[in-house]
Amino acid sequence: MGRVSAAPPAPTWFGQPRGLTVLFLTNMWEQFSYYGMRALLVYYMTKQLMMGQAQASLIYGAYTACAYFTPILGGVIADRLLGKRRAIVLGGSIMALGHFMMAFEPLFYVALVTIALGNGLFLPSLPSQIDDLYTPGDPRVGWAYNVYYVGVNIGGFLAPLLCGTLGELYGWHYGFGAAGVGMVAGLGIYLWGQRYLPASARAAPARHAAPRGRFTREAALLLVAVALCVTVFRAAYEQVGNTVALWADSGVDRRAGDAIVPMTWFQSLNPLFVMAMTPPLLARWRRRAERGGAERPVRRMAVGALIVAGAYLLLAALAARGGASHWLWLALFFALLTVGELHILPTGLGLFARLAPAGMGATTVAAWYLATFAGSLAAGLVGTAWTALGHGAFFLLLAGLAALAAALLAAIDPASIAVIRVGERR
């Protein structure tokens, strides 16, 4: 009897399924468009449209909140009607249109609404395809979301440098137009890479599909509790593009020799640090897992929120002493913020995706963005206190919010252990 040969391993890029690279690059360019527009938004409103700081903060918070609320409906539409591929193509096309509309001042509010609507279809459908690339039990899936998160931050790193520079030096509308070009590039990569993606992503939902999975009561309660904690955390974290950006313009000495560093460039520090810090962090977590000491996801998130609280304490101390602070202090703030962010945000996204019942991947990932929606809305409201409180007290408030999120996550960590173990065995 002839020997039966084992099936050859699936081709990989960089040790991961090829489809992860496609999703990584698609996400990178989508995030380039989002962060390119966001880097300009608050400056555009206060310097070009001549809005007051409080009004600009509310609009900024409302926009970022809506960009993460629409995925709740978009995830359901993708899972039940369109399928993930159609949702991404349609959503990306609508977003590109909105970015190009931002180049025309009379269309400002219409453009914001258009981008938020397109984002609703696009955002939950992309990361919900990651788990489908791996067989059950594949250990690589645990790191896949951190790898995917690097794509977010490459786009976020390039966006302020390119879109921000165009906006500051040549006109805001050129920066917004460049963001639209980035979105088109992301769509092109996604369409090109279809053959590397799971068949489930390319197909529309069957008309008479098999019954969908359901959340256990324990899993649902855990995800709700985590989402509430992340909402509190986001109220502080989302100030990076809002009040922290304003402080970088007015409270930071931006001189580097004879040159002045453009204010939008500082928003590239966070994604730059993500790219630099992710590999050593993953290596550290992998070594710990190999020794049998893998860190629990919710506890890791609590540590991340506490580190972010420390980052805002640094800004509070700098602001309290008065005068302009050297830009290196701002760089240190972003380094601390990034370490905390890497502990909490990709870990939370991965937790929601891994606990998703069958047939509800995009919907469950969309629920993660509900926390981002609520946190962004809260951030806009918190940002209105920037002038009233004074900068030192305001940053102290943000440190308190991040510390509160850390305490709440630490409180629910013990109850999360059994729920996560059951979800990983499904």
TrEMBL record:
It holds the Pfam family PTR2. Gene3D superfamilies: MFS general substrate transporter like domains (1.20.1250.20). It comes from Sphingomonas citri. The lineage of its organism: Bacteria, Pseudomonadati, Pseudomonadota, Alphaproteobacteria, Sphingomonadales. It comes from the Bacteria. Residues 19-417 form the Major facilitator superfamily (MFS) profile domain. Belongs to the major facilitator superfamily. Proton-dependent oligopeptide transporter (POT/PTR) (TC 2.A.17) family. Keywords: Cell membrane, Membrane, Peptide transport, Protein transport, Transmembrane, Transmembrane helix, Transport. Its main location: membrane. It is found in: Cell membrane; Membrane. NCBIfam families: yjdL_sub1_fam. InterPro entries: Dipep/tripep_permease, MFS_dom, MFS_trans_sf, MFS_Transporters, POT_fam, PTR2_symporter_CS. This is Peptide MFS transporter. The chain crosses the membrane at residues 58-78, 108-126, 147-167, 173-192, 219-237, 264-282, 302-320, 326-353, 365-388, 394-420. CDD domains: MFS_DtpA_like. It is a multi-pass membrane protein.
